[in-house]
Amino acid sequence: MRKVQDLNSIVYFEAVARQSRVNTAADELAVSPSAVSQRIRSLEADMGVRLFRRIKRRLVLTEEGERLYEAATRSLSVLRDARRDVSRDRAGRTLVIRVAASFGQRWLAPRVADFVSLHPEWDLHIDATPELTDFEAEKVDIEIRYGSDPPPGTHTRLLVTDRVLPMRAPSSGDFGNPGLEETLASARLIHTVKARISWRWWLGRHGLRSVNSNSGLKFDRSSMALQAADDGLGVALETATLAFDELKAGRLEPLVPRLGTVDFPAYHLVCPPRHMNRRAVRLFIDWICGAAAAHEAARDELLASLGCGLRAPFRTD
């Protein structure tokens, strides 16, 4: 561009092209419509082409305008991303992590002290919520997302594979199939309604057709379902990842150890690729992946000691 002020002209042009009206673009830019019109006329004169044609009350891009709009959109997006990242660093050395609530409470929170001790120069803001992140609109650096389908176009890494099994407060030992079906038919089932592996799926997999898969207590978070099981209210179908402390302390036990566990790729680290340029993001990812690997090794050793050596992948077909 030949003039410094032409960058502002590109900003005005992009707003008009996106809104199709000068008045609407002027409201967005907090300037007068005449200022916007003057900028567009100046830009067209400087480039020697028409960028818009008027159809009724709307402005429609010409072929040359389309080409400029595509380039302007890409360039302004890069500039806005850079400005957002720089502003975040200037505002404070804070790393914002969004995490599924039960995972944040039961798994991440007890480990935060280790990260802080290793990197005391960084502040952490942990947002435990089931809401998925809109990285373009929210100031979130990394999301720890539950589920097997992370969004396309993001930097994604599997963090933890769940090992799911029925568990209850201690009472009696393992059951044969007839004893198991009778026990579950008379037991109170504890459901985590947002979990991908449901009682209906698990009962069907093992051919336990007479058990009412819809009966029992229903919770929207694993932490509440596990607390109910710990209180002796029934049998929870839950993950050993979140029930590790209860299983280790003997407050919960596998209902049927010989049936083993179902493996589900549950928790993923998700962020836009550009966030990987931040040193704090890379430090956090390296740290949490190391912590997850150590946890999975300890969890697998514990389950083996409880007789849950068998592992099967979760399949919906």
Would you mind describing this structure in some detail?
The protein has 317 residues and is an alpha/beta fold. The protein folds into 3 domains: 6-91, Orthogonal Bundle (Arc Repressor Mutant, subunit A), CATH 1.10.10.10; 94-160 and 267-295, 3-Layer(aba) Sandwich (D-Maltodextrin-Binding Protein, domain 2); 161-264 and 300-313, D-Maltodextrin-Binding Protein, domain 2 (3-Layer(aba) Sandwich). It contains 11 helices and 12 strands. The strands form 2 sheets. Strands 3, 4, 5, 6, 7, 8, 9, 10, 11 and 12 form a 10-stranded mixed beta sheet that branches. A two-stranded antiparallel sheet has the order 1-2. β7, α8 and β8 form a beta-alpha-beta unit. The longest helix has 29 residues, at 63-91.
